[in-house]
UniProtKB/TrEMBL annotation:
Residues 1-26 form the signal peptide. GO terms for molecular function: metal ion binding; metalloendopeptidase inhibitor activity; protease binding. The lineage of its organism: Eukaryota, Metazoa, Chordata, Craniata, Vertebrata. It comes from Salvelinus namaycush. The gene is LOC120041621. Zn(2+) binds at C27. Disulfide bonds join C27-C86, C29-C112, C39-C137, C139-C180, C144-C149, C157-C172. This is Metalloproteinase inhibitor 2.
Length: 191
């Protein structure tokens, strides 16, 4: 009998720990450079949140679209976020940069997308949204958290200053020779 109880206890413990890991990892987001977020997103817009409504599985954030940087030809009137641990909390009457996906004609965002308040963006980031980020989508950006960083291919840029705003003001742009490099300017380099 003791062996049976012990066996059941171990089985339950393993099942519990397995589920805790699933729940704990439900919303783990890797650091994402603004250019990566731009390139990976289907839609990138600047918008003001004007209302909020809880639905059965989603939260519908009514928005007033200000500018479309990337995406479809239609005007987006609402942004949806789910009610899980990856849900995004948005303030009404505040402007944001939204990067997200289109699912059945509706824009969806998660906590792992890049959705900062508009006023938190630097002038370099705002300018990069109109041209620089798009021109660098052929380049890859690799985060480097500790030196020495691994050797990467020529079509990539190492992002070494993750904890600062510095790297977020740069854009990884493809050069004439096909290699990629960080660019500090506010406009594209001359070709």
């Amino acid at each position: 009998m003791t062996r049976y109880v012990s066996s059941c206890f171990i089985t339950l413990l393993v099942l519990f720990l397995w589920r805790v890991e699933d729940i704990a990892e439900a919303c783990i987001c890797r650091p994402q450079h603004p250019q990566q977020a731009f390139c990976n997103a289907e839609v990138v817009i600047r918008a003001k949140v004007v209302g909020k409504k809880a639905l059965s599985n989603d939260i519908k954030n009514d928005i007033q679209q200000i500018k479309m940087f990337k995406g479809c030809d239609q005007v987006i009137h609402a942004i949806f976020t789910d009610t899980t641990s990856c849900s995004v909390t948005l303030e009404i009457n505040k402007e944001y940069l939204f990067t997200g996906k289109l699912e059945t004609g509706r824009m969806h965002i998660t906590l792992c997308d890049y959705n900062p308040p508009w006023e938190a963006l630097s002038a370099a980031q705002k300018n990069s949204l109109t041209r620089l980020y798009k021109s660098g989508c052929d380049c890859k950006i690799f985060p480097c958290t500790s030196l020495p960083c691994p050797i990467i291919t020529s079509d990539a840029c190492l992002w070494t200053d993750l904890g600062t705003d510095n790297g977020q003001n740069l854009a990884c742009i493809k050069r004439r020779d096909g290699s990629c490099a960080w660019y500090k300017g506010l406009v594209l380099p001359k070709k």
